[in-house]
Amino acid sequence: MKKIALIAFLLAVCVAAGRAQESRQDISLSGTVLIEPFMASSTNVQVAAQRGFGAMASYRFMLTPSSALEANYGVTYENQIHYTVSNTNSYLVNTRTQEISFAYVRSFIYKKFNPFVEAGPAVLIFLPIRNSTTTSLDVKQQTGVGGMYGAGIAYEISPSFDIRAEYRGIVTKVPTFGYTQLETKRWYNIFWPAVGVAYHF
């Protein structure tokens, strides 16, 4: 009985050691650019925006060597959204945008190059910044629900690190910040490219 217990214990230790050597998780930190497209609508509201720069942290858990689940959190420092109503009234909202998204990631392994595609649900939180750039509207925080998709490539620089570059897109409704006169009844396709470094463990 003691021999059987000892063999079972040794097998468990060997399995644990083997799994410890296999990198099944990674975290990454990336620099991002938020690019919101020009949007015109049937409600006589036009929306344009300046670029926003920020950062994103991601966590991946490998289900298989070529598929993974991913969670992302990103935030931009600030960008300005410009609304024009009926070609006469202009409203500026300085905004900090946060992203929370989840995705299924499919990778394709070619030696040190690993192209990948991903898609999943996303939540965007538009946080107005009340400063001299934002006009006198009493703008409110708004949360938008949508979808995230992307494609990119990872280059392995060591068994523990790789460099990632990806094009990311997020589809969500154009924010109104709580004002019906800014309603466009349209959906944004926001471009959100990212470049960063990942650590595997």
Set out the fold topology.
Blueprint: H1 2-21, E1 25-34, E2 39-40, E3 45-49, E4 52-64, E5 67-76, E6 79-85, E7 89-107, E8 113-128, E9 142-156, E10 161-173, E11 187-191, E12 194-200
Antiparallel strand pairs: 1-4, 1-12, 2-3, 3-6, 4-5, 5-7, 6-7, 7-8, 8-9, 9-10, 10-11, 10-12
Number of domains: 1
Q: Report the sheet with the most strands, covering strand number, pairing sense and barrel closure.
A: 8 strands, antiparallel, barrel
The CATH topology corresponds to Porin
Please identify the top-level CATH class.
Mainly Beta
The CATH architecture can be given as Beta Barrel
> How confident overall, as mean pLDDT?
88
Order of helices and strands: HEEEEEEEEEEEE
How are strands sequenced across the largest beta sheet? 1-4-5-7-8-9-10-12
Helical/strand content category: mainly beta
What Rg is obtained from the alpha carbons, in whole angstroms?
22 Å
**Principal-axes shape call:** elongated
Task: Enumerate how many helices there are, as a single number.
Answer: 1
Poorly predicted segments: 2-21
Measure the end-to-end span. Answer: 37 Å
DSSP strand tally: 12
Multimerization state: single chain
